[in-house]
Amino acid sequence: VRLHLHCHATTGMAEMALLKAIEAGIDGVDTAISSMSATYGHPATEALVATLAGTGYDTGLDILKLENIAAYFREVRKKYHAFEGQLKGYDSRILVAQVPGGMLTNLESQLKQQNAADKLDQVLAEIPRVREDLG
After folding, report:
1. CB under 8 Å to 70, separation ≥6 — which residues?
2. What is the CA 118 to chain-centroid distance, rounded?
3. pTM here?
4. Mean pLDDT score of the chain
5. Which residues contact 42 (CB under 8 A, 6 or more apart)?
6. Cα–Cα distances in angstroms (integers) from residue 17 to residues 1, 27, 66, in the given order
7. Residue 16: pLDDT band by 50, 70, 90 thresholds?
8. What number is the average pLDDT over the span 106-118?
9. Cα gap 9→102, rounded to integer Å
10. Radius of gyration in angstroms for the set of CA atoms belonging to the chain, rounded to a whole number
11. Taking 80 as the threshold, does the pLDDT of residue 64 lie above it?
């Protein structure tokens, strides 16, 4: 059985999890090109490639070719800016709220549809209390 690790970069812990999993012998990990990575997405491919370069886990990927891909998708991403969530960078609140990346984007979308996007902070703070109440 092959093992593959899938993480979202919302809390800033995914990069460390990928590295530790690689060191432990995982068969594969998910990353995203830097211009499409982080927050709701996966850790950046280029950062992992650079981290592993020259080690026993060297990917053999060309960082300059990856930069060309990143440049292309940087422009593509601009076209879809209106669909991006509120969070930028890492958000430590998610460590407490424990909301997975896919659920987080859905939550934001639902709040926006209810004209309550400004309530995200309150909802994230309430989630741990609801979990505690429900056991």
Report:
1. 33, 34, 35, 46
2. 22
3. 0.82
4. 93
5. 6, 7, 8, 9, 14, 30, 31, 32
6. 20, 14, 22
7. very high
8. 93
9. 12
10. 17
11. yes
